[in-house]
Design a protein that fits this description.
single chain; alpha+beta; 23 helices; about 20% strand; globular; Fxna-like_M28_dom; glycoprotein; membrane; M28_fam
Amino acid sequence: MPRGQGSSVSTREKPKVDQAVDSNEENRKHRRGAYLLLGLLIVFLHGSWSVYQIQFGNLPLPLDAKQAGKRGFSEASALEHVKYLTSLGPHPVGSDSLDLAIQYVYAVAEKIKKTAHWEVDVQLELFHTDIGANRLSKGLFKGKTLLYSDLKHVLLRVVPKYMPEAEENLILVSSHIDTVSTTEGAGDCSSCVGVMLELARGVAQWAHGFKSGVLFLFNTGEEEGLNGAHSFITQHHWRNSVCFAIDLEAMGISGKSTLFQGTDHWALESFAAVAKYPSAQIASQDAFHSGAIKSATDFQIYQEVAGLPGLDFAYTDTTSVYHTKNDKMKLLKPGSLQHNGDNMLAFLLHSAASRNFLKNAQEQKKENTEKNKAVFFDILGKYMVVYPQRLATMFHNSIILQSLLIWGTSLLMGGRPGLVSFGISCLSIILTLIFSICLPVVVAFILPHICPFPVPYVANPWLIIGLFGSPALLGAFIGQHIGFILLKRHLRHVYSRTKLNLPHNTREYVIDLEAERWIFKSGFIQWLIVLILGTYFKVGSSYIALIWLVSPAFAYGFLEATLSPVRLPKQLKVVTLVLGLVAPVVSSAGLAVRMADVIVGSVVRVDRNPGGLPDWLGNVIVAVAIAVVVCFMFVYLLSYVHISGDKRTLGLLLCIFFGCSLALVSSGIVPAFTEDVARPVNVVHVVDTTGIDDGNREPLSYISLFSNTPGKLTKELVDLGDEEFFCGRNMTTDFVTFTTKYGCWSYKESSSGWSKSEVPVLLVESDSVTDGARQTVISVDTKSSTRWSLGINKQEIDDFTVQVDSEKLVPLGGKSEVDGWHTIQFAGGKKSPTKFQLTLYWSNSATQTSRREAKEAVDVPLLVKLRTDVNRVTPKVAEVLEKLPRWCAPFGKSTSPYTLAFLTGLRVNI
């Protein structure tokens, strides 16, 4: 067995001592100095940052209309559309500004129709949806029924005039016009709409050679639960002609539009073959499907409801501004739209003109199987790698088997000493993880107590390198060094019996070298375990573990391992480290940096029930993520430090870097939030009639203040000192879709800005028991509100139906629940109905016990609870918003209330 593969020298061997270990002077000469190690660390970090910049920050030059020509894509033209849409301000469903946005998109589409190639037929339609119900089973929508009405979409179909069959085979390109109520939506998703309009203009000049048509869907209602895509895919007469779907989205603003979900190998290969600037990461798909990213896109509708193959793209730069006022034009990076448009135009021209693509799409739509799943990723944004998942599994299994055979043979030849060394190497992996995670987690717990904000690094993400990266790296070294010391102790015992002819000093040095090699090889074990687990659970991004295992192992075997067991170990070559890490760093360093950036940006909205999570939790998430990256990416580099005489110097530098970062955030010199990267703070005027059992009492009216970012609202209240806010965990508000568990209330001047006529009404029309089954009919009047959420107590109610004008909108069956409640969310246009009939079917146990318990209960639980929203800023809310610091911004989502919310409910003892 080669010396580098874990064998121990037999007692019968008479080793030839290398000149490299002949004397103490020579030993000291070959010890690595602090400058070399620091240089290696700098090269590693700089290389990782360079990879990130090349892979994610290198954008193409934007083109104007003249440069792009009649058939090309012009970012300047697309930006004109974005500029107009953002000038309208927020345009949520049901708003006047959304009507203006739809009119603008329709007008631009009419111009595209007039200027299309003479052999191209452009068909334009303004689609007005019927009332509908959207019930999805996965992700964010478990336990929910989403209702919608009076939505308007713009549809633009581009087909060749003289090929009628193209009308029956459409490639759908989809995005949404609407925004949440808190932002003008430059990134999410006016940029997508601008790109689509410019794409449609270009496609209209090429489509005469197409085999498939291209359908551009500009939908509304996406921000309220993917309702726009659902209404199209279930109601429009063109829906059955769609055979492939492309969704354009944004989880931040600008940067590269990255392919983060793809269904089929053939589709991914088609994109890879023609994309000018490929950006694709299956790791994002893995994170999305795991539920780690609490979000959803229209792509879920196209997959789950329509069974369509397709691709999903999204912007992910600056995720901290997502759904806030800072999603604005000035943060759009030049080249972002050009990157998206050039890729999409090339892909559409290729796929729409290809008979093979059409055939594959038709077959996949009929079969709807997962056999065509693929692994995909880009290399430095220049080249995209795609291969089938089944091939990946076969290849991974082959590498795993070979690795196990090599390790098994090595341990067999090494005997008991080799097996013990292997066990200590595995222990060093565990110790490395433990120490690397523990130190930054301790920092995560400390930060809320010494900093003005629990998450003080959001506006300056580079601070996490010092705050969490330094202690993680120090902890990783400490854990690994303990393993190194244990290895030395074991090897000293072995060598004392097998190397009696070696001088003591030489033997100690040889032991150091042998321990160093085992620590280096522990990286192989670590990544092999990850590869085995990833392959077993069919994780697409397991290719990362494969590269981190194979490349360093090959470099080690080529440069370090020898065929003679009689040679004593030499010091590991620096070139082994450099060559071994080139491929891993190029393949995954940029992704690791992007992952950290996205996690930091998402921390500002991590608390889905404000006040429900501890202040330190956001920091812990970031700390653990950083520690795991450090443990796995630095495992080989750290093994070169242990026999250095300058370990203390490097440790001191890490401590100094950590101390400087901590001083910056604790002193407030570097602000936690800025006007451009703001802390989400929502201000809602609440009118609550939930606790009123009769009509004689006045509704409870107050101003509610809460934040989805961990931490109290102490700093915000400095500027609101005269508004008489009271804060605490007793200031909870049940907004039906979520509960504010820590918030602030103010009753000051809250009686104006609303009227009793706007308070919703829940009225029991009938309550009867037939054959032991209890049934209750409730009329729901939301008054002027066309956006509301209603919760139904599933501990009491088995099932329910919802009717609108005698039409059963929600039938019996298929109701899931979350925490004992099923939630109905409604969002629609101005002409949406406001009166509904809710029929409740009680469970047998509830029929027998609820009334008896209600007689004795002091706090009777709610049977149904309702929140209605009005998109109006009352005078007091306007005053509070004006006084809030500039580094605060309202955060919007489908479950959040508007600035005026009415609460009511019915108790179980009705």
